[in-house]
Specification:
Blueprint (H helix, E strand, L loop, with lengths): L1 H18 L9 H29 L6 H40 L1
Length: 104
């Protein structure tokens, strides 16, 4: 009688070790991993369907003229910022040349 309990105890431990084994295909892990993979694939499919639906139905896209005017504003602002950085760099370079010229 005691011997049967030991076998059941060790059998239970062996089953736990087998279930949590990192090896694919050991024990019951292959069936559950396949089910998890299918579930993950379904989640990804649903996510992509929702993203497409939101892009088509809920997003308000700008018209071509609005897009052109926005692009023009961005280009002009970029040119103004680039010129201001150029002027500051040019001024600091000459200022530093003047300061270093005093000591050398």
């Amino acid at each position: 009688m005691v011997r049967d309990k030991r076998i059941n105890l060790f059998t239970g431990v062996a089953q736990l070790v087998e279930h949590w084994s990192p090896k694919p295909g050991v024990g019951s892990s292959s069936l559950s991993s396949r089910a998890k993979n299918e579930e993950n694939i379904m989640r990804i499919k649903n996510y992509l369907k929702e993203v497409y639906k939101e892009l088509v139905e809920k997003v308000s896209w700008p018209s071509w003229s609005e897009l052109q005017s926005s692009a023009a504003v961005v280009m002009v602002a970029s040119a103004i910022i680039a010129m201001s950085i150029f002027v500051m760099d040019y001024g600091f370079r000459h200022l530093m040349d003047f300061v270093y010229g005093l000591f050398y």
